[in-house]
Amino acid sequence: MLEGLDNNHIGMDSAVIDTKIPGVKLVQTTDFFYPNVDDPYLMGKIACANVLSDLYAMGVDTCDNMLMILGVSQQLMEEDKPKVVGMMLAGFKDLATEAATFITGGQTVKNPWFILGGVATSVISFSDLIMQVPVSAQVGDVLVLTKPLGTQVAVNAHLYLLPANEEKWKKISGIVSRDQAIASMSRLNRTGAILMKKYGAHAATDVTGFGLLGHAKNLVSNQHANVDFVFHTLPVIKHMYEVDQIVSFRLSEGFSAETSGGLLVVLPKAKAMAFCEEMEAIDGWPSWIVGDVLSGTKDARLSDKPRIVECEQHSL
């Protein structure tokens, strides 16, 4: 989140730092979190995608180097450590390869709980940044979201399968599937970063732990113009709105946490549909125009009756 700006161009999602070479910038970000799925390989992919999203949110679609951060749980049986850690490393490495970057090191420590994440670094020309800081939203622009909401609802609800949560699970039995959430979380936001530059985005951020409205409020509060972000549509992973009505994660309020969520992109209205169409043509996943940029007081909110769009299943 944006804490303040200085001459080094601190960005919303990544630090943009001056180097000793004129016109060349260092763009860097770090992130880590606890595992939220029980497949170590897929968890490695999700962690890699999550770290890279902060670069992509700045319109930086190339990553020169990644470091991996891994805290290995002390509760893990010794005989299981080589397999579990190896699978996590493999998942992280495979998605880094898909992103055309390299893992050159990192840090592994023992920890009471598993943590997984990394550091992503890109060295670029200043002219290649989509924005020095993402503060150019204009009245009449629209808001585009590149991944559906509900990832954390899906993975948390899946925990209700455990015997200790049997009563809660009975309420949502038969309507919970994590497959689409996992497929979404492990998908790179790289295409969105590339197309943001092509279609002239005015601002962007990625949607993660603070939910759609949490990140939108931070983004809008830093705009040059006095604008509001008003959301009229909430794209949601199939069945997750129904689950949220039973066991509330504040999904319908716009505040459900997301892991490795999509990009929230502010685009000129005339270019937004073409952006969405090209995104789907390249990635095979839809994007949505979810809101409007209106004259206001630098606030973000849902409209009175936001439309819920359920997203069909995508395979892993």
UniProtKB/TrEMBL annotation:
<protein>
    <recommendedName>
        <fullName>Selenide, water dikinase</fullName>
    </recommendedName>
</protein>
<dbReference type="InterPro" id="IPR016188">
    <property type="entry name" value="PurM-like_N"/>
</dbReference>
<dbReference type="Pfam" id="PF00586">
    <property type="entry name" value="AIRS"/>
</dbReference>
<dbReference type="InterPro" id="IPR010918">
    <property type="entry name" value="PurM-like_C_dom"/>
</dbReference>
<keyword id="KW-0067">ATP-binding</keyword>
<keyword id="KW-0547">Nucleotide-binding</keyword>
<dbReference type="Pfam" id="PF02769">
    <property type="entry name" value="AIRS_C"/>
</dbReference>
<keyword id="KW-0808">Transferase</keyword>
<dbReference type="GO" id="GO:0005524">
    <property type="term" value="F:ATP binding"/>
</dbReference>
<dbReference type="GO" id="GO:0004756">
    <property type="term" value="F:selenide, water dikinase activity"/>
</dbReference>
<dbReference type="InterPro" id="IPR004536">
    <property type="entry name" value="SPS/SelD"/>
</dbReference>
<keyword id="KW-0711">Selenium</keyword>
<keyword id="KW-0418">Kinase</keyword>
<dbReference type="GO" id="GO:0016260">
    <property type="term" value="P:selenocysteine biosynthetic process"/>
</dbReference>
<dbReference type="GO" id="GO:0005737">
    <property type="term" value="C:cytoplasm"/>
</dbReference>
<dbReference type="InterPro" id="IPR036676">
    <property type="entry name" value="PurM-like_C_sf"/>
</dbReference>
<feature type="domain" description="PurM-like N-terminal">
    <location>
        <begin position="12"/>
        <end position="119"/>
    </location>
</feature>
<dbReference type="InterPro" id="IPR036921">
    <property type="entry name" value="PurM-like_N_sf"/>
</dbReference>
<feature type="domain" description="PurM-like C-terminal">
    <location>
        <begin position="138"/>
        <end position="298"/>
    </location>
</feature>
